[in-house]
Amino acid sequence: QVQLVESGGGLVQAGGSLRLSCTASGNIGSIITMGWYRQAPGKQRDLVADVSTRTTNYADSVKGRFTISRDNNKNTVLLQMNSLKPEDTAVYFCNFRGVGYWGPFDYWGQGTQVTVSS
Questions:
Q1: What is the reported pLDDT for 10?
Q2: What is the pLDDT of residue 104?
Q3: Which long-range contacts (C-beta less than 8 Å, at least 24 apart) are formed by 60-68?
C-alpha cells in the first residue's frame, strides 16, 4: 500500500523559511507529476507548485519565493519556501500522480500545517 509521508511544517515568523518534504513508500509505480497544494481555513485547496518530467509550475503568489524539486530515486518531492508571508499560512498537501501496475494513480499526503506569524 502506498503512503505519502510529509514533514517540515511548523511555525515561522514572516520573512523566514521552511522546507517541506514528501516521500512515497510502497510500490508506487511511475510518478509523472509531483506537486504541493495548500488549503487555508474556509478556502479551497489550491496548487502551489508542481513538477513533471518536462515542466514546473508555480502559483503566481509564490513565484520567486518557493522552489519545488524532486528526487526520483527517492520518490521524494521538496518545497523550499523563502520570504514567507502570513498569507502563506495553510495546510500543505503533497500529491503524486502517475501510472502503476493497476493503472493511473492519484495519491495525497496527510497534510502538514504551515503557520507564518506577522
A1: 97
A2: 95
A3: 61/87, 62/88, 68/34, 68/35, 68/36
